[in-house]
Amino acid sequence: MIRLLLIESQPAIRRGLRMRLTLEPDVTVIGEARDGLAALWQASMLRPDVILVDTESTDMDGVRLIAALRSASPESATVILSLRDDAATRRRLLAAGAAAFVSKHECGDRLLHAIREAAATRAVPPARALPAGRLKPAHDDGTPR
Description:
Residues 3-119 form the Response regulatory domain. Keywords: DNA-binding, Phosphoprotein. The chain is 38% helix and 19% strand. The protein is built from 5 helices and 5 strands, in the order βαβαβαβαβα. α2 (36-46) packs parallel to α3. The relative contact order is 0.15.
């Protein structure tokens, strides 16, 4: 099951997206936010698999929001849903760390594919390293050599 956080400032659009996403058997919307601050709080608390965000509808610059979301929930993948579909915007947001960019003009199946792909390839936080002195080779039986 893909756990998704939905970030969209327009209530009607947010409601429509939620309704469409809940029709999918493998997607569950675990939270919604209408602005960047609420999005950061929810991302840090809910730790979703995917964060779907319209960067133009929030109170933060898209690049800064993506960086802040990555910091708040590093294991979450961010999918951008945008009315702007120019190459410069797409490059800028993908370079900032978004897993995918979907134009609102090409929504629908493309959006669902991007969400599933992002969930499948999302960042996995590195394991905590043990101090070097505590590591032993697999063949070490504890006897001096």
